[in-house]
Amino acid sequence: MKRRQFISKSAKSGLAIGAGSLITTGILQAENLIGSEKSSDPMDERAYLADILYTKKEVKEWLAGEAFPFSRYHSEFGWLLGNARFRDGIDDSVSTYTYAENDGERIMSNYAEKACRINTYGDSFTQCHQVSDHETWQEILAANIQEPVRNFGIGGWSVYQAYLRMLKEEKEKPSEYIIFNIYEADHERNLDSWRNIRVSKHPQHIEATLPYVKIDMKKGTITECKNPCPTPESFYDLCDLDKTYKLFKDDFVLKIMLAHKNADTENPDKGFESLKKLIKTHGIETNLDSSATLDKQAGEVHRRAAIFSSKEIVKKIERFAASNNKKIIYVLSFGGGTIRKYINEGTRFDAEFVHFLNENQLPYIDLLEEHSKDFKQYNIGIDNYIEKYFIGHYNPLGNFFCAESLRSTLVELLNPKPFPYQK
Which of 76, 137, 209, 421 gives 229 a disulfide partner, CB atoms 3.0 to 4.6 angstroms apart? Predict the structure, then answer.
């Protein structure tokens, strides 16, 4: 069946494609690859890549729109989305996803005939996966302020991919105001040159190569890198071990994943030495004590590199906004598991990023804090609270919560005020 006719039977597809915790993604992936028994010898880059190659049949079917229906190939961004229906909504309902022609945004309904001065960018929590077109938080906002809000979100994207799309779309459909949504996993995704190195194949989504950044924390810089497979023909390189090894043998995320995997071998010292070399190459100042804690240390190195990359990308976003007279609100989005952990334990993995936003006086909505405050109003357990708003991504009520959380900040920023808020 062609993608536009496809209806998924998996109600959980949205969770696997668009969500996932920054803290645990790499470690869980490593555990899935390792299995329950320790191997005797450490794995090297070539052996790791040999395990994750695509088949020519898989690539051919994806490029033809005959398989992996969640996404479609794009030479610059890695992938975009197409019109689709997935049985992934509330109460196992079918969600309808419709996009404007020529790689456009998700369609608008409320006040779509009016001039638009608000564009939104981000991943699936911007796209609003698992709800239909007219149930998104953008449409809820538009209904309230009585003017349209564009939705340029794409499931599975990084902060960097969203930034690149912002540069493109603001030339073609410029807006004075931008809502830039950063989901918890988007930091880690900035570093992915080939998502399949870190995330297993999904029956609905081929994990494509994508534009990414390299970091040097000692110099305080990032290097922007284009999609390693910039043509459909070059995507077939991911079926050939020699070509794949040449592309990714020095990849940062591959080294991190090898450290996770080799931490569970009988001799983790090789992985430990490789991790020490990696942090030196990328200027990451951290204390590595011993190979006994290799798995934990690899996760911490990955986290620090990811958060650093997002801070540098936000600096680029701010420079773009300043030079083009645009105003930006950042929205920090999180999955139910992270919200549960924060409410129960009061800890968060991205405290350094929040500090950066505060230090630079950047306007943002922290949905982790918003949910924490909201939870205190209910006399229910945390599991029932999460179920109230989430079905993997936000359900319709969750999207309403998101819209209401940022409404007052947006209205305060807009000049002139939206019609309903004019005196």
Answer: 209
> 3-state class of 87 per DSSP?
coil
pLDDT, position 63: 96
Q: What per-residue confidence (pLDDT) applies to 295?
A: 84
- Beta carbons within 10 angstroms of residue 352's beta carbon: 14
Report the C-alpha gap between 144 and 342 in whole angstroms.
30
Region of 132 (left: φ > 0; alpha: ψ -120 to 50; beta: rest) is: beta
- pLDDT score of 18 more than 50: no
The Cα 210–Cα 157 span in angstroms is 9
Q: What are phi and psi of 239, to 5 degrees?
A: -100, -5
Average pLDDT over every residue of 329-349: 97
The phi-psi region of residue 102 (left if phi > 0; otherwise alpha if psi is between -120 and 50; otherwise beta) is left
**CATH number of the structural domain spanning residue 383:** 3.40.50.1110
- How many domains does the chain contain in total? 1
Judge contact between 225 and 211, C-beta under 8 A. Answer: yes
- The parent domain of residue 44 ranges over 3-421
What distance in Å separates the CA atoms of residue 234 and residue 409, rounded to the nearest whole number?
Answer: 45
The structure tokens listed for 234 are 């070059």
Model pLDDT, residue 200: 86
Torsion, Cα 409 413 418 422, to 10 degrees, reads 100
DSSP, collapsed to helix, strand or coil, labels residue 353 as helix
Which region among 35-44, 274-283, 412-421 has the lowest average model confidence (pLDDT)? 35-44
Determine how β-strand 212-216 pairs with β-strand 221-225.
antiparallel
Q: Tell me if 139 sits within 8 A of 160, measured CB to CB.
A: no
- The answer to whether 278 and 297 have CB atoms below 8 angstroms apart is no
Positive or negative torsion for Cα 377, 378, 379, 383? negative
Structure token pair of residue 193: 């040159």
pLDDT band at 19 (very low <50, low <70, confident <90, very high): very low
For residues 299 and 183, give the distance between their C-alpha atoms in angstroms, rounded to a whole number.
18
CB atoms closer than 10 angstroms to residue 142? 26
Residue (of 331, 88, 295, 76) closest to 186 by Cα position: 331
- Residues 184, 188, 190: CA angle, nearest 5 degrees: 115
What is the rounded distance in angstroms from the CA atom of residue 93 to the CA atom of residue 70?
17
- Cα–Cα distance measured from residue 133 to residue 127, given in angstroms and rounded to the nearest whole number: 9
In the structure, what pLDDT confidence band is assigned to residue 323 with cuts at 50, 70 and 90? very high
**Position 182: which residue type?**
I
